[in-house]
Specification:
Blueprint (H helix, E strand, L loop, with lengths): L18 H6 L8 H10 L1 H6 L4 H7 L2 H8 L2 H19 L16 E4 L15 H15 L4 E6 L7 E4 L5 E4 L11 E2 L10 E5 L2 E12 L2 E7 L7 H4 L10 H21 L6 E5 L5 H14 L3 H10 L1 E4 L10 E2 L1 H14 L4 H6 L12 E2 H7 L3 E4 L2 H10 L15 E2 L6 H4 L2 H11 L10 H5 L6 H29 L4 H9 L6 E6 L15 H9 L5 E6 L7 H15 L7 E4 L4 H10 L2 E4 L11 H7 L3 E5 L4 H4 L7 E4 L8 H25 L8 H14 L5 H45 L3 E7 L11 E8 L8 E9 L10 E4 L1 E7 L2 E8 L7 E9 L14 E2 L1
Parallel strand pairs: 1-2, 1-9, 2-8, 9-10, 10-13, 13-14, 15-16, 15-18, 16-17, 18-19, 19-20
Antiparallel strand pairs: 3-4, 5-7, 6-7, 7-8, 11-12, 21-22, 22-26, 23-24, 23-27, 25-26, 27-28
Helix pairs in contact: 7-28, 9-10, 10-11, 11-28, 19-20, 19-23, 23-24
Bound molecules: pyridoxal-5'-phosphate.
Family: Belongs to the glycogen phosphorylase family.
Protein name: Alpha-glucan phosphorylase
GO molecular function, one term: glycogen phosphorylase activity
C-alpha cells in the first residue's frame, strides 16, 4: 500500500533559533570544531544518531527542547557568536593567490566522482574522495575561486557489517537528500532546475543538489527525477556499483552533465581540474561547446581546452584505470564524434595509447592525459611510476620527459587534528598557526611544546580511542544478537596504557593487511608480553566483489577471537571518517604495508602524523619522501625494494616489520624516565611536526596546484580566447602546420670540437645542422641532451642545454650551436634533439613531437 500524497514534516524552529539553519547548511561545521560541538551538546545521543548531520538532527529535536533552548540566553549568545564566526568566514575575501576572473565568477571547476567531506555526506569510498573533500576545504580557507562537481548517490557507498564468522556483508542505506545539508538548485519559476543530455539517443534528465563547503559550492548531480525511466534513475544509485554500462553512464553524467550543469547555472569556469580520469568526458564537452558556440575548429578547441585543463591521476594499479571496449563506446559516442566532426576511429584514438591499434580499449586516463597540458601524480614516487606507466602515450620520449609531474597530496589539518592537539599548537605555535600551516617557521615552534603536556594530551586521546572502540564493539555484538558474555568482553577490550597500533584502510590486496598474520607466533608473543605489550585496532572495508579482501578480514576477525589475542586485537566495523578520526588521533603507531609502488600517496599516515602518531610503513607513496633514514620521524619497512616474487616479499617484509616492533618500537615506547615520560618517543613526535607539518597539508597542496597548474592554465585561457579566440586559432594553425612539416625535419653533422677526454669543468661545444623544412627558428627548440652513461651506454641521468641558431646554410639548413658540461667524472655522452616551441605551449613535450639525432 502506498500513500496518495507524501509530506515532509519539519519542526517549527522558534524565530530566535532560525540562524541554526545557517550553521546546519554549511559543511563548515565539519572542520570548525566549535560548531560541531555546539550541535553535539544540544543532545549528544541524537547527534551521534544523526551521523553528525545537523539538518537531520534539527529536524529530529523534540519541539519541547527547541522551545527550551529558545529561552536559554547562554545558548542564544553562543549561537550568535558562532553565526558571526561563520559570517565572517564566508565574507572574508582575502587571499594570497592572485587568481581572479574578470567576471568575478569561479576560475576553476573541480571534478571528482566522490567526495569525503563529512560523515553526514556519505558519497565517498576511500582516499580519493577524502582527498577531494580536503581539497575543497583548503581551497575554501585559501579563498581560491573554485566550484566543484560530483554525483549525488542515493545509496552512497555500502555500510559494512560482519556475520558471526567474520564474513563481510553490505548494507546500502538510502540517503534522504532533503534531510541532509543540501539544497536543490532551482530555476526561474522556483521549480527544480532540470537539465538534459543525450544518452544512447534517449533523453536523460537530472537535477542538481548544492552543498556549501565553507566558501566553496559543490554541485552534485542526481538522475533520480520523475521523468527518467528506472534504469536512468539508477545511474546515481550507487558509488562504483554496477557494470561497465553503469560506469560509462555515470562518467558521461559527471563529465558531460557536469559541464552542462555549470553552464545552466550561469557559471563559466576557465580552468577544469579532473580529479582522476572518471570525469575526462568533461574535456570533450568543453571542446564541443567551443566548436559550436565560437565556430572553432576541433583542433583549435582542443588546444584551448587542453591548455586550460589540469589532470591528476591517482592509481598505479592498472585495474583502477577505466577502460571501455570500442563497441561500448560506439553505443554512446558515435553521434557525439560526428558532432565533433571526427571519424569514429579518430575519436577512439583520443583514448588509446597506440592510436593505430583498433583493438585497444578506450582508456579514460589516456583521454584525460591527451585533453590536459598539466598532468600530475600524487607523490614524487607516484609521479615517476605514472611517467613509466603512461610512456606509450608519448612514444618517442625518454621516460623522464613524459609530461606527468607530481604534486604530493596533503590533508586538511583542521578536519583531522584532535582539538586537544590543536589547542596545544595554538598555545605554543601562535594563534594564527592554522591560517598558515604551510610555513616552516611556524612548525619549528612545535619543538617548544613541553614533553609532559604533549604526552598527557596524547594519552587522553588514546583513552578516548579505547573508549570509542569498546562502545562500537558493544554495538556490533548487540546488532548480531550476541550473548551477555560477549558484551562483557567488548566492555573490557584494549587497555588505555598499552602501545596501540592502528591499521585502517580499504582491504585492497596491494595494501596487504595480511602481513600481520604471516608470523602468528611472533605476533602472539608481542601481544602477550606482560611488561611491554602491544595492541591493534583494525578497520576497513573490502570491495563487495573482492572475496580475497573479505577472506583477509575474516582471518583477522577470527584472530581477534582467539583467547591469546582477545582484547588485544579488535576489528571495528564500517570504516568511515569518524572511525578514521578516532584512530589517527588515538594511536601511537600508524602501520601501513602497501606493496611498493602501488600506493599512489596514502593520506591516513599524514592524519596520524599531525596528531603525533609515528608511522611505520613500507617506503611507498608519501612515506617514500617523508621518511628519514635515521628513523628520527618514524620507521621504514625495508628500503624501498621491489620484488619479482610476491610471496617472498611478503615473508621478508613481515619479518622486518616484527623486527622493528620488537627491537625498536616496543623498547622505545616503554623506556620511561622519572617523570614517567618516554622522552625519545616524544622527541620523534615533535620532530615530525617540525619536519613534516608544513608540507603534508592541504593548504600547501592547493597552493601548489594554484601556482603550478591553475594560474598558468588560466593565463593560457585568457590569452587564447582574447580577440575572439585569435590565439587559439593561431596555435592550432601553427600546430597543424608543424605536424605536416615535422616528419621532414632532419638533423645532420652533429659535431663537437672537444677531445674525447676532458676535465670535469671543461665545456663541450656542440654544433649541428638542422633542416627546418620551412618552419621558423622560433617554432622549434633544438637541445643538447646529455648525461652520464651506464656500462651499456645508456643515459643514467640527463640534463638539457639549448642550442642557438648560428647561421643559414642554404636549402632550409640551419647551423645550431650550444655547449654542455659534464656533471661529474666518468663516462659521459650527449645527443641532439628538436622539440616544438610556442609561447602558449605549457610544456613542449605535450604535443608528443620530437626528433632525435
Ligand atoms: C584518510 C582516509 C582514507 C585514505 O587513507 P589511505 O591512507 O589512502 O588508506 C580512506 N578512508 C577513510 C575513511 C579515510 O579517512
Amino acid at each position: 500500500m502506498h500513500p496518495l500524497q507524501k509530506y515532509s514534516v519539519i519542526p517549527r524552529l522558534p524565530e530566535s533559533l532560525s540562524s541554526l539553519w545557517d550553521l546546519a547548511y554549511n559543511f563548515l561545521f565539519s572542520w570548525k570544531n566549535e560548531i560541531q560541538e555546539f550541535f553535539a551538546q544540544m543532545d549528544p545521543d541524537l547527534w551521534a544518531q544523526s551521523h553528525h548531520n545537523p539538518v537531520w538532527f534539527l529536524n529530529h529535536l523534540p519541539q519541547a527542547v527547541l522551545e527550551e533552548l529558545a529561552k536559554d540566553t547562554f545558548f542564544l549568545d553562543r549561537l550568535e557568536e558562532l553565526t558571526l564566526l561563520q559570517e565572517r568566514y564566508n565574507s572574508d575575501t582575502s587571499t594570497t593567490i592572485p587568481l581572479h576572473s574578470p567576471d568575478k565568477g569561479p576560475v576553476v571547476a573541480y571534478f571528482s566522482a566522490e567526495y569525503g567531506v563529512s560523515l553526514a555526506l556519505p558519497i565517498y569510498s576511500g582516499g580519493l574522495g577524502i582527498l577531494a573533500g580536503d581539497h575543497l576545504k583548503s581551497a575554501s580557507d585559501l579563498n581560491i575561486p573554485l566550484v566543484a562537481v560530483g554525483l549525488c548517490y542515493q545509496q552512497g557507498y555500502f555500510n559494512q557489517y560482519l556475520t558471526h564468522d567474520g564474513w563481510q556483508q553490505e548494507r546500502y542505506p538510502y540517503n534522504d537528500f532533503d534531510q541532509m545539508p543540501l539544497s536543490l538548485v532551482r530555476g526561474d519559476n522556483n521549480s527544480p532546475l532540470y537539465i538534459s543530455l543525450n544518452m544512447q539517443g534517449l533523453e536523460l534528465t537530472f537535477q542538481i543538489w548544492q552543498a556549501r563547503i565553507g566558501r566553496i559550492f559543490l554541485y552534485l548531480l542526481d538522475t533520480n527525477v520523475p521523468n527518467n525511466p528506472q534504469e536512468f534513475k539508477n545511474i546515481t544509485a550507487q558509488l562504483y556499483g554496477g557494470d561497465l554500462q553503469m560506469r560509462i553512464r555515470q562518467e558521461i553524467l559527471l563529465g558531460i552533465g557536469g559541464i552542462k550543469a555549470l553552464h545552466a547555472m550561469g557559471l563559466h569556469p576557465k580552468v577544469i581540474h579532473m580529479n582522476e580520469g572518471h570525469s575526462a568526458f568533461a574535456g570533450l564537452e568543453r571542446i564541443r561547446i567551443f566548436m559550436h558556440e565560437h565556430q572553432l575548429s576541433f583542433e583549435a578547441a582542443l588546444e584551448l581546452v587542453a591548455s586550460s585543463s589540469v589532470f591528476t591521476t591517482h592509481t598505479p594499479v592498472p585495474a583502477g584505470n577505466d577502460r571501455f571496449p570500442p563497441n561500448l563506446m560506439q553505443q554512446y559516442f558515435e553521434g557525439y564524434a560526428n558532432d565533433l566532426g571526427l571519424a569514429f576511429k579518430v575519436f577512439l584514438a583520443l583514448g588509446r595509447e597506440n592510436p593505430r591499434d583498433d583493438t585497444e580499449t578506450f582508456c579514460m586516463t589516456v583521454l584525460a592525459l591527451k585533453l590536459s597540458r598539466f598532468n600530475n601524480g600524487v607523490s614524487k614516487l607516484h609521479g615517476k611510476v605514472s611517467r613509466s606507466m603512461w610512456k606509450k602515450v608519448w612514444p618517442q620520449y625518454p621516460v623522464e620527459d613524459v609530461p606527468i609531474k607530481s604534486i604530493t597530496n596533503g590533508i586538511h589539518i583542521q578536519t583531522w587534528i584532535a582539538p586537544d592537539i590543536a589547542y596545544l599548537m595554538r598555545r605554543y605555535m601562535g594563534s594564527t598557526w592554522q591560517d598558515n600551516p604551510h610555513t616552516d617557521r611556524i612548525w619549528s615552534k612545535a619543538l617548544t611544546i613541553p614533553d609532559a603536556e604533549l604526552w598527557r594530551t596524547h594519552e587522553r586521546l588514546r583513552e578516548r580511542l579505547v573508549d570509542f572502540a569498546r562502545k562500537r564493539l558493544k554495538q556490533q555484538v548487540m546488532a548480531r544478537g550476541g550473548r551477555r558474555m560477549e558484551l562483557q568482553i567488548a566492555e573490557e577490550v584494549l587497555d588505555p596504557q598499552t602501545l596501540t597500533i592502528g591499521f585502517a584502510r580499504r582491504f585492497a590486496s596491494y595494501k596487504r593487511a595480511y602481513l600481520l598474520l604471516r608470523d602468528k607466533d611472533r605476533l602472539l608473543s608481542l601481544l602477550d608480553n606482560s611488561k611491554a605489550p602491544i595492541q591493534f585496532v583494525i578497520a576497513g572495508k573490502a570491495h563487495p566483489r573482492d572475496n580475497e579482501g573479505k577472506k583477509i578480514i575474516q582471518q583477522l576477525v577470527q584472530l581477534c577471537k582467539e583467547t591469546e589475542c582477545r582484547g588485544r586485537i579488535v576489528f571495528i566495523e564500517d570504516y568511515d571518517m569518524e572511525i578514521a578520526s578516532y584512530l589517527v588521533q588515538g594511536c601511537d603507531v600508524w602501520l601501513n604495508t602497501p606493496r611498493r609502488p602501488l600506493e599512489a600517496c596514502g593520506t591516513s599516515g599524514m592524519k596520524a602524523m599531525i596528531n603525533g602518531a609515528l608511522n611505520m610503513s613500507t617506503l611507498d607513496g608519501w612515506w617514500a619522501e617523508a621518511y628519514r633514514p635515521d628513523n628520527s620521524l618514524g620507521w621504514a619497512i625495508g628500503q624501498g625494494e621491489e620484488y619479482a616474487d610476491n610471496e617472498y616479499q611478503d615473508f621478508v617484509e613481515s619479518q622486518i616489520m616484527f623486527n622493528i616492533l620488537e627491537k625498536d618500537i616496543v623498547p622505545l615506547f616503554y623506556a620511561k624516565d622519572k617523570g614517567n615520560l618516554p622522552r625519545e618517543w616524544i622527541k620523534k613526535m615533535k620532530a615530525q611536526f617540525a619536519a613534516l607539518g608544513s608540507v603534508y597539508n592541504g593548504h600547501r597542496m592547493v597552493e601548489e596546484y594554484a601556482r603550478k597548474a591553475y594560474m598558468p592554465a588560466f593565463t593560457n585561457y585568457t590569452r587564447l580566447t582574447e580577440d575572439n579566440f585569435a590565439a587559439a586559432k593561431d596555435l592550432s594553425a601553427w600546430r597543424m602546420d608543424l605536424m605536416t612539416k615535422w616528419s621532414n625535419l632532419r638533423i645532420r653533422n652533429v659535431q663537437s670540437t672537444t677531445e674525447l677526454e676532458l676535465y670535469v669543468d671543461e665545456q663541450i661545444e656542440v654544433t649541428a645542422e638542422i633542416q627546418i623544412n620551412g618552419l621558423r627558428p622560433q617554432d622549434i627548440q633544438v637541445e643538447i641532451y646529455a648525461g652520464p652513461l651506464d656500462h651499456e651506454g645508456g643515459f643514467t641521468a640527463r640534463k638539457t642545454a639549448p642550442m642557438q641558431p648560428a647561421g643559414e646554410l642554404g636549402d632550409g639548413w640551419q647551423l645550431y650551436r650550444g655547449t654542455v658540461s659534464p656533471m661529474h667524472s666518468g663516462k659521459f655522452g650527449y645527443t641532439v634533439r628538436i622539440l616544438p616551441s610556442h609561447p602558449l605551449l605549457l610544456d613542449p613535450h605535450s604535443l608528443g613531437l620530437i626528433h632525435w639525432a
